[in-house]
Amino acid sequence: IQFAYTGGIAQSEIIPKSQVWAWTGNTSSGKYLSRNDSGSTFSWGNSTTDSAFSGVAAVDVQTSAVGQRILAKYEGTVFEGKREWFWIVYNDRTVAVMFTDASTGGTCGTVSTSALTAGWHVLGFSYDGTCAGGAGITLYSDGQALASTDSSSSYTAMEDTAGKVTIGNDGNNEFPTLNDMGHAMLVSGNVTANQHLKLYNSAKMYYGL
Fold first, then answer.
1. How far apart are CA 99 and CA 111, in angstroms?
2. DSSP character for 147?
3. Using one digit for the tens of pLDDT, what is the confidence trace for 152-195?
4. What b/e string do you get for 163-182 counting C-beta neighbours within 10 Å, with b at 16 or more?
5. What is the pLDDT of residues 26-84, one digit of tens each?
6. Residue 133 pLDDT more than 90?
7. What's the distance, CA 79 to chain centroid?
8. Sheet containing 164-167: which strands, arranged edge to edge?
9. Which residues pair with 57 in a beta bridge?
10. Fewer CB atoms near the end CB (10 Å): N or C, the chain?
């Protein structure tokens, strides 16, 4: 799967390894990776039900002015039909995963209750496909599940918007990831706690964390 370099990012700043990406030197708010998703590769909802998916990324977490998107399929305004999901480190270093119902504008998601320490973390999430008040989402940091606060409002399911998928920002260029990031990946299915621990140990060895 090929992502386009957006906003003038140099190819030398991105190191592709199969479908794993290392992200370095992103110091401009206009730099991120993006690709169109007309084939529904990165959609996990059909307007009636959601299906399970999970994510993992090594992120240099720092306090920022606006927060930093890790991965997203999210652009436009609420009812333009381009909003599906996003994974973010907020400006207070809490982490969240949020989904949008494009028909109602409703949302479902969860936010960690405590801030992460500054520095490198292997972050993750697993979604079981049943966003009942946000309870179907589990957040992870360094192989351990995080306590989080769930929320839901007017939400049934995500919808395939055929929109833009982004790494290190969203489609509105509002939440740039200014620090380093690597091993960003998404997979279909509900990755288990034990699998998150194994992924953390693998990334930890790779980055020398």
1. 12
2. P
3. 999 999 988 777 777 766 655 566 566 677 777 888 899 999 99
4. bbbbbbbbbbbebbbbbbbb
5. 444 555 666 666 667 788 999 899 999 999 988 888 877 777 888 888 876 555 567 88
6. no
7. 21
8. 4-6, 32-36, 164-167, 68-74, 83-89, 95-100, 107-112, 148-153
9. 123
10. N
**What is the C-alpha separation between 165 and 158, in angstroms, rounded?**
15
Q: Which long-range contacts (CB under 8 A, 24 or more apart) does 100-104 make?
A: 100/74, 100/158, 101/47, 101/154, 101/155, 101/156, 101/157, 101/158, 101/159, 102/47, 102/158, 102/159, 102/161, 103/47, 103/156, 103/159, 104/154, 104/155, 104/156
3-state secondary structure at position 198: helix
Dihedral in degrees, nearest 10, Cα atoms 171, 174, 177, 178? 130
Q: What is the mean pLDDT of residues 113-119?
A: 94
d(CA 106, CA 64): 27
User: Measured between alpha carbons, how far apart are the two ends of the chain, in Å?
Assistant: 28
Measuring CA to CA, which residue among 109, 63, 66 is closest to residue 86?
Answer: 109
Residue 197 structure tokens: 């621990």
